[in-house]
Amino acid sequence: MLKNHFRFFIIAFLLVDFVTVNAQDVLVKGQVSNTGTSKYIYLSKLFGNKVNVVDSVKHTEGEFSFNKPNHFERGFYKISAVPNGTSVTLILGEPNVKISGDLAEGGKASIEQSQENAVYITYQQLNDNQNKVSTFFQKQAEQLRSQQLSEPVFQKEIDKLQAKFDSLSISYNQSSATIIAQNPGLFITKVMNMFTNIDTAKANTFFREAEYKDTELCNGDMLSSKISIYFQRYLNPDIASWKQGLNTLLTQFPANTNNRQVLYLTTIDMFAPYDQDIARELAVRYMKEYPQSSYAKQAFANAPKGSPTVGEEAPLISLAGVDGKIIHLKSLRGKVVLLDFWASWCGPCRQENPNVVRAYSTYKSKGFTVFSVSLDDNKEKWQAAIVKDGLVWPNHVSDLKGWKSSAAALYNVKGIPATFLLDKKGVVVATNLRGEALEQKLKELLNE
Question: What's the pLDDT at 343?
Fold first, then answer.
């Protein structure tokens, strides 16, 4: 694989051009063209890889101003005519700022009274050049590979390319260090510090101490970008490696920090296309740790609808019982409930039924019951199995649609037996407990 031969890197920020502000009454004003039919100009704030509108004003032929008492929190913002549309990206943190831009040209803008932006433009030009260099060398490497050279010859040529690239990378790092040294205390300097010598860092030194705790580093997509680079650079491209890497980072990013929120937001988006259950578990965990966070609430609401996880309220089920009358899962609130997905044709389910019967017999008087959802499509076989296995609890339901069961779809059940143990409030406290493990958990919940 090409990645085994190259350490080339690309710092491809999502950020474009910007602005800045700080102290007393702050004024951000400007003129933007190509606003379309919108009557408003929107100001949005970046938090990790998320962008949320924080203010809006009516404009007059593209002219606008935002006034804020005290100050804007230092970090990246966007100005646009449509939320999440083409925008000019700003760093607010200095006093009054004036901006002029064109929303039809990728947010191109000029900004006055902003040392932050002047430094950023220099840094952006430096990055653009380095990215072009990286792209050039990658193409050179691909050309060598296409020539089907012998391994020794190929490796020799690759080493030559790598040496040239490393030399240019040293020059890039030196230029970055010079900019940082000449501009201490700026927000953009913090951003630059995050990516200096990134190509030579080891896994255990990739993140610096400030990146775990400095909340200003959450005010933009740079920490999110660095987390993504960590996964790409140091972890194998498989879910098991990603989970292990995530667990490592969760031990390093302190609780109750915005930085940890950015870790959650970034990794939820990363896992979602490949493993929706893990993405949902992360969203549930995030929501549990940060119940007041608007970002956590949004992440939870947008999370893939996989199986409910521990700590999540169980989705409600209302299906017909054996006698045709509707039985509601919600009617069992106040009891500890084993929600059991099974079927008469499922061998492992029938083998587990004696354990469920024993648990029910032992704990029914203490507030425990079972809500059985059958994935049968034959009513007679379903009823016969209930009788034969001695499933004496009254809560048996099914829509007799087999694997097309609406309840199975609601709980994302892909295999049976599948169980969800619910507390008296209807919250999932455990999943897929069997035998002794189920009884032990019931002892705990029922204060045995």
Answer: 97
Give CATH for domain 26-113. 2.60.40.1120
Report which secondary-structure segment, H or E, holds 345: none
Residues in the chain: 448
pLDDT (0 to 100) of residue 10 = 40
Task: Please say whether the beta carbons of 348 and 378 come within 8 A.
Answer: no
Domain ranges of the chain: 26-113, 118-200, 203-306, 318-445
Nearby residues of 107 by Cβ (< 8 Å), 6 or more positions away: 16, 17, 86, 87, 88, 89, 101
Burial per residue of 389-421, b for 16 or more beta-carbon CB atoms within 10 angstroms, e otherwise: bebebebbbbbeeeeebebbebbbbeebbbbbb
Model pLDDT for residues 215-265, shown as the tens digit of each residue: 999 999 999 999 999 999 999 989 999 999 999 999 999 999 999 999 999
Mean pLDDT of 103-117: 77
Amino acid letter for position 98: K
The DSSP secondary structure of 370-385, one letter per residue, reads EEEEE--S-HHHHHHH
Residue where the block lists tokens 């009617």: 331
pLDDT tens-digit readout, 373-391: 999 999 999 999 999 999 9
Q: How many CB atoms lie within 10 A of CB 381?
A: 14
Tell me the residue type at 109: A
CA distance 425 to 358: 24
Torsional sign, CA 284, 213, 114, 128: negative
Helices (H), 84-238: 115-146, 151-182, 187-195, 209-213, 222-234
Q: Strand locations in 362-427, DSSP E? A: 368-374, 396-397, 418-422
Q: Quick check: 43 and 54 in contact, CB under 8 A?
A: yes
pLDDT at 394: 95
SS3 87: strand
Give the contacts of 350 (CB within 8 A, at least 6 positions apart).
342, 344, 385, 389
DSSP class of residue 60 equals B
Q: Which residues partner with 414 through β-bridges?
A: none
The C-alpha atoms of residue 385 and residue 344 are separated, in whole angstroms, by: 6
Peptide linkage before 417 cis (omega within 30 of 0): yes
> How far is residue 338's CA from residue 319's CA, in Å, rounded to a whole number?
16
**Residue 13 has what pLDDT?**
41
Cα of first residue to Cα of last residue in the chain, in angstroms, is 58
Task: Give the homologous superfamily in CATH for domain 318-445.
Answer: Glutaredoxin (3.40.30.10)
